[in-house]
Amino acid sequence: MSPAAPELDFFQRVYAVVRQIPPGRVTSYGAIARYLGSAQSARTVGYAMNAAHSLPEVPAHRVVNRVGLLTGKHHFGGFTAMQQQLEAEGIPVEDDQIQNFSQHFWDPMNEL
DNA sequence: ACCGTGACTGACG
DNA sequence: ACGTCAGCCACGG
């Protein structure tokens, strides 16, 4: 399987990676961008998540910014939906900040 | 084909 | 340690 297959649209490549994030783990926009070979496309990764709403298989709640802050929660219908989904997987969140972030971090560069 | 937009990031003061 | 600034890049109009 080639998640970074260049023949696929950038968004599709992003989704391919996000789908492989294990439950209870999280990663960052930048980490995904770097894995796809476009380290400076972190913003575009977030843009892709925005369009991923129609794709139920894409666990967008497992993608946060580099310090573990839930910067994308405003795009989750409610303002607590993202946090609740994370805590449901055993990831403690306090004031939009994932606790023990490095401990839950999942780097596609190392794991894939 | 050009321009504005954004769920980011690293550097700087 | 914390707020601010400026690059970056893919998408849609």
Protein architecture, described:
- The chain has 112 residues and is mainly α.
- The chain has one domain: Orthogonal Bundle (Arc Repressor Mutant, subunit A).
- It is 38% helix and 7% strand.
- It has helices at residues 10-18, 29-35, 42-51, 81-88, 101-104, 108-111, and strands at residues 27-28, 63-64, 93-94, 97-98.
- The strands form 2 sheets. Strands 1-2 form a two-stranded parallel ribbon.
- Strand 3 and strand 4 form a beta hairpin.
- Helix 1 (10-18) crosses helix 3 (42-51) and helix 2 crosses helix 3 (42-51).
- The longest helix is centred in the middle third of the chain and has 10 residues, at 42-51.
- The protein is globular.
- It starts with 9 loop residues before the first helix and ends with a helix.
- It binds a DNA duplex (13 and 13 nucleotides) through residues 9-11, 28-30, 33, 38-51, 60, 63-66, 70-76.
Q: Averaging pLDDT over every residue, what do you get?
A: 91
The largest sheet is: 2 strands, parallel
- CATH topology-level fold name: Arc Repressor Mutant, subunit A
Distance between the termini: 11 Å
- CATH-scheme architecture: Orthogonal Bundle
Number of helices: 6
* Regions with little confidence, pLDDT below 50 for 5+ residues: none
Superfamily at the CATH H level?
Winged helix-like DNA-binding domain superfamily/Winged helix DNA-binding domain
Write the element-wise H/E pattern from the N-terminal end onward.
Answer: HEHHEHEEHH
What's the assembly state of these chains? single chain
Query: Could you give the order of strands across the largest sheet?
Result: 1-2
- Give the overall form: globular
What top-tier CATH class fits best? Mainly Alpha
Number of domains: 1
User: What amount of the residues lies in strands?
Assistant: 5-15%
Instruction: Indicate the structural class.
Output: mainly alpha
Proportion of residues in helical segments: 25-40%
